[in-house]
Amino acid sequence: MESDRYIDDYLSSFSRLGDVQRMYRGLADLPTYDEIVRLETSLLNLLHPGIGMAKGNGSLEDAVRFEMEFFISLAKSIVRKAFAYQDSAGVDAQERTDEVVDDLMRNMGRIRQLLKKDAQAGLDGDPAATSLAEIIICYPAFRALAVHRIAHHLFVLGVPLVPRMLSELVHSQTGIDIHPGASIGESFFIDHGTGVVIGQTCVIGDRVKLYQGVTLGALSFPRNACGQLLKGAKRHPTIEDDVTIYANATILGDITIGRGSTIGSSCWIKTDIPAHMRVLNREPEMVLVSKR
Q1: Closest listed residue to residue 47, CA positions, set 124, 107, 126
Q2: Considering Cα of 46, then 47, then 49, then 51, what sign does the dihedral take?
Q3: Which of 74, 162, 169, 196 is 20 to 30 A from 38 in CA distance terms?
């Protein structure tokens, strides 16, 4: 075979071949991105029946029941694979999977109610929007948020890999990067959305609005005495209720943007902002130079 000339030298690049072979058997059982794509499609159909579902003569209940059965089956398969690969403290993957999917499905109605408020916030906040259906079908930010609310729920329940796979899938689809660990309140809206980054430990309150290019990121990464990064430390901003952040603003570190404040375009913020403040850059000077 053509590969015979290369395979031995290539395999020698793995430091411990036995460990790699065992890991490969585990990787073969990991969730695939094809499965995650199918899960996302089923999720969106379930959250917004009639938009993506095949139309038929049955009732809404029949259509939702059919999609829900498919979603539950696929979710259990994907989550079980993730738990089995992690093998955390010897937990029973199937038992843990059943608990997680049951919890998710019990909260699906609540999550859908949150998304209805998000869609209404989009309609109320964008003069170009003409209907809730337009927000739900056309706006990439709404897709990103719908997937995030599910991914965040799974993240909080301790599901490995799957929440991040969901968030990175929708990141590739929309250009909006929301870590599944970020906590987002009610009536949230991102206008345009391209280039928005929301870090893992962000906490966002109710009725917050972002524009394109906003970064809610980390200023620095805390380390222990050995120089290793500390995982899980709060390192991203807290955005309180009723805050608006305009395009390309960058807000870094474990700081707080106070309730009711407005952050102007292209501001760079590394300190707390009190409530009800307007933060602006100085008006840039425009210089006209003749090309003749």
Answers
A1: 107
A2: negative
A3: 196
Q: Which CATH class is domain 15-176?
A: mainly alpha
Alpha-carbon span 163 to 138, nearest angstrom: 23
Could you read off the pLDDT of 254-283 as tens digits, one per residue?
A: 999 999 999 999 999 999 999 999 999 988
Tokens for 168? 């990175």
Domain over 182-281 is classified CATH 2.160.10.10: yes
Angstrom distance (rounded) from CA 30 to CA 82: 6
Amino acid at 204: I
- Stated pTM of the model: 0.87
The pair phi, psi for residue 108, each rounded to 5°, is -65, -40
Phi, psi of 125 (to 5 degrees): -100, -10
Contacts of 33 (CB under 8 A, 6+ apart): 165, 169
- At residue 21, the 3 state secondary structure works out as helix
> Residue 221 and residue 284: Cα distance in Å, rounded?
33
Is the CB of residue 260 less than 8 Å from the CB of residue 275? yes
Quick one: how far is CA 146 from the chain centroid? 9
Neighbours of 253 (CB within 10 A): 17
Q: Extract the tokens encoding 54.
A: 């095949």
**Domain ranges across the chain:** 15-176, 182-281
Spatial distance between the Cα atoms of 135 and 120, rounded to a whole number of angstroms: 8
Pair of tokens at residue 171: 């990141």
Residues of the chain falling short of pLDDT 70 = 14-28, 52-57, 87-91, 221-230
Here the tokens at position 84 are 């089995």
